[in-house]
Amino acid sequence: MDTNQPTYLFLQSVSNNAFHWCLFLSPGDELFLSADFSKKDNQVTVKGKGSNNNQPEIFALTNMDMQPFNDEKNPDQVIAAINKQYLLNKTILTNYIKANKPSAEFIKNAMVNLKYFAPANYYEFSHNHTLFMSKQELKPWLRIQDSLFATVKLSNDEALNAYNYNKLVDNFVMREAEAAKMEYEANPAEFYHRWFKANPAKGKKEYNGTQTGVLNNMIIDKYFSGKAAEYAYGQTIKLKFVRADYPAVVSMFNHFKKEFPASVYLKGFSPYHR
Question: Is the dihedral of CA 140, 146, 152, 153 positive or negative?
Answer without folding.
Answer: positive
